[in-house]
Amino acid sequence: MGCMALLAFPSSVFEKAVPFFIAFSGIMIIVSGQQHVLNTKKQPLGLKILYFIALLIMGAYTGYFGAAGGVIVLVLLTYIAGEKFIVINAIKNVICGFANLVALIIYIFTSHIYWLQAIPLAIGMFIGGYIGPIILRHVPEKPVRIFIATLAFIQAGYFFYTAYLR
């Protein structure tokens, strides 16, 4: 599980890896948006199995770094489900929510949690969980994907700077 990796390795490993995880997720959100509606029935069975295995791995990885994990889960679901972006995003929220809940339970029993910092994050998550679907109903998919990717690249650049250049 990703949360166990986060606990096992020094923070410097996480700091050095994160920019690449985030940049990869930004690339993947753009690439997955190139096919407007995917016909999942024409995909070879082996490819679908590969997507499901990747989804399982990403569920475990999300406990390590949820932001990039969430975007990559979104990408994989695009290829697996072939549904509209708003439906795929809702499924992603449930999957990542459970993955983060499992990670939280493990962190509660194996690590020190800074609750004063965690509470505002939880509040933001619930606000975003409420407002996000409303926005997705009114904004076309392509600008949303571009916005997500742009934020990913900006964040990756910032973390790259802090990890390697500062």
Automatic annotation (TrEMBL):
Keywords: Cell membrane, Membrane, Transmembrane, Transmembrane helix. It comes from the Bacteria. The chain crosses the membrane at residues 20-38, 50-80, 86-109, 121-140, 146-165. It is found in: Cell membrane; Membrane. The keyword Cell wall biogenesis/degradation does not apply. Belongs to the 4-toluene sulfonate uptake permease (TSUP) (TC 2.A.102) family. This is Probable membrane transporter protein. It comes from Lactobacillus kefiranofaciens.
